[in-house]
Amino acid sequence: MTEIPAGALPTPYVPGMTGLSIMARGGYATVYRATQVSVGRQVAIKVENRTLDSARDQARFLREARAAGRMSSHPHVVDLFDVGVTVDQHPYLIMELCDGSYLDRMRVSPIGAVEGRDVGVKIADALVHSHANGVLHRDVKPANILYSKFNPAVLADFGLAVLAEVRDASMTLEVLTPAYAPPEMFSHEVPSGAVDVYSLCATLYAVMCGRPPRWESDRSPSLIGLMDLFSKPIPDLPGIPGILTDVLRNGMANDPKARPTAEQLRDLLADLHLRPGVSDRQGASAATEDTPTVAMDGTRRAKRKWPFASR
């Protein structure tokens, strides 16, 4: 596989597409806005900077493309229309064009509890679909949750997705996003659906906080510093009901077996009957007291029994 520095790629030729203009450029890929001539619609084309010089690279790309294609039937997964390889061997994906990402949103202004819960329900349901098909996403983060005027939340970029029976930890460590990765991703443990649950909860925390959990700056710590962060408590979220924060905390348990499944997380979030304007920890019981499936114990605080450790 040959790596090409970002910015060095000329505008590619993609059959059936016209008017390519750069939307985003990074070390891994360049994303173009384009028009699909046959139907006259705007699309996004992700062209990877690498070239597929070997059979192994080609097989990996096809595996990723098939995984993404299998997932894109879900209403909260970005639609994948086609894949291919340019004449100079750069793989590309033609996808639904969205308006922006939740990384953009959190940089401007963190979102509120009701929207955070609703986004969580939608993306957790996408992960339920993904895991049921034997596919792990392994890179859930604010930049990979997109929105448009037609859909408030869709999960993008199954570039790290692998079929559950195919494990390639080295590929994950090369490109994972440390701020949203659970501790087992930095060890030799076999990844499971609990990885995506952790990353989604860390993502929801970040988009409501403005920064990832436990992180005090935008600079990535060393690996030793990163591992030390996992021993620190996850702070409350100002203006967010404690009962919602506690769901996210349990989804970010260091022990993968102590986390809810994607399905349990979806249901826990969906059962939080948050009312707009009820935002602080004192108001959490008022926001959720009509939710028997996520009832608080006699202390009337957001302290509940979590059954996930017994799985």
List the helices and strands and how they pair.
Elements: E1 17-25, E2 29-36, E3 41-48, H1 55-71, E4 80-85, E5 91-96, E6 100-101, H2 102-108, H3 113-132, E7 135-136, E8 145-147, E9 154-155, E10 162-163, H4 169-175, H5 193-209, H6 223-229, H7 242-251, H8 262-270, H9 284-288
N-to-C SSE series?
Answer: EEEHEEEHHEEEEHHHHHH
- Within CATH, the superfamily of the largest domain carries the name Transferase(Phosphotransferase) domain 1
Q: What percentage of the residues does DSSP assign to strands (E)?
A: 15-25%
Helix content: 25-40%
The gross shape turns out to be globular
Low-confidence stretches: 1-7, 163-167, 169-173, 279-305
Strand order of the largest sheet: 1-2-3-5-4
Query: What's the number of extended β-strand segments?
Result: 10
CATH class of the largest domain, anyone?
Mainly Alpha
**Can you tell me the number of structural domains?**
2
Estimate the mean pLDDT confidence. 82
> What characterizes the major β-sheet?
5 strands, antiparallel
CATH fold group of the largest domain:
Transferase(Phosphotransferase), domain 1
From the alpha carbons, calculate the radius of gyration and give it in angstroms: 20 Å
Named CATH architecture of the largest domain: Orthogonal Bundle
* Alpha-beta content class: alpha+beta
Amino-to-carboxy terminus distance: 41 Å
**What's the total helix number?**
9
